[in-house]
Amino acid sequence: xxxxxxxxxxxxxxxxxxxxxxxxxxxxxxxxxxxxxxxxxxxxxxxxxxxxxxxxxxxxxxxxxxxxxxxxxxxxxxxxxxxxxxxxxxxxxxxxxxxxxxxxxxxxxxxxxxxxxxxxxxxxxxxxxxxxxxxxxxxxxxxxxxxxxxxxxxxxxxxxxxxxxxxxxxxxxxxxxxxxxxxxxxxxxxxxxxxxxxxxxxxxxxxxxxxxxxxxxxxxxxxxxxxxxxxxxxxxxxxxxxxxxxxxxxxxxxxxxxxxxxxxxxxxxxxxxxxxxxxxxxxxxxxxxxxxxxxxxxxxxxxxxxxxxxxxxxxxxxxxxxxxxxxxxxxxxxxxxxxxxxxxxxxxxxxxxxxxxxxxxxxxxxxx
Length: 368
Ligand code: HEM
Hints:
The protein is mostly helical. The protein has helices at residues 10-13, 23-34, 64-71, 73-76, 90-106, 117-128, 159-172, 178-192, 226-236, 240-247, 276-281, 308-315, 319-328, 330-346, 363-367; strands at 254-255, 264-265, 285-287, 296-298, 305-306. A 3-stranded antiparallel beta sheet has the order 3-4-5. A hairpin with a 6-residue loop joins β4 (296-298) and β5 (305-306). It is globular, with a radius of gyration of 20 Å. It starts with 9 loop residues before the first helix and ends with a helix. Protoporphyrin IX containing FE (HEM) binds next to α6, α10 and β1. Its EC number is 1.11.1.-.
């Protein structure tokens, strides 16, 4: 059993009441839980007439001549214009942030002390990790994970727990799209776990059918090595350094045998966002002797785990340079992670030039 170092913040002392659900919301949620697919649950943020959050976007909506003129007819089909839902401002999104954060706080003891931080960050990443830069397809824009085959992709096993976690908030705020809700959930996960501020922009629009769902196979396979990781993250458009910075999110959460087959947390503080992943990775590891897929255990305590793909970052002569840098300098990790994570969440979304980012206050900041 792993030792979990719990974060001590005023947030843990004063547990806020959970999000209140209206009757209509509860009914929608029940449907969602019973059958997690598009026909049963729609909190459509389809705001194709919405205004951008800081500039007039009327001439840039959905396809149209403007886009064709800019990008040419062949690519126009893949341009996903991000537009803030009409009439919504920073304060509206901070309210959604707060409801997610309060629910996270209420479930701080869940998942053997890991809480929900990791679950939400993984949901945001898998929602975005279907992107292909060359085709400019996939990504978080359409919130396509409710559709097959993405919903049944083995790589997404267990993420229905994250989608269900956020569903009641989607019901309460029907104007927010799935892509916005899931990526905002990731921002909450990072920030409430003590990580850096993640600048975020709204405007993703719900896909209403399966037509935009990419084929499975764009997410990485944990049993593979450096060349696979480089190939997968290269297709998203990330450098080696950005790739290593992103995977540092494995400081949060844990593996679950019922989801991925793997088991355990990466380190002693799965509810804290910090550079512990790299520090742990540089310690001594050996193959775990067990009935499951190949994974590693730390020699010192045997309480923590690494995936073969994690070990590849240490074994590859280029990746390991970034691992060492981030293990030695948490501020650098925070800065690089922030840039790469913002890029990940926005891959495939097209914002009008100059669209401002929102930076949300944590619950602790609002209380103190
Ligand atoms: C080579 C790349 C990666 C591989 C192979 C990989 C694989 C995995 C696997 C197998 C799990 C366990 C799932 C479970 O059993 O619940 C997991 C969890 C997780 N991954 Fe990754 N991952 C990768 C990159 C990333 C990136 C880029 C992020 C975020 C930016 C991320 C964030 C997380 C988080 C936070 C968890 C914990 C989830 C929870 O606690 O429920 N991973 N990952």
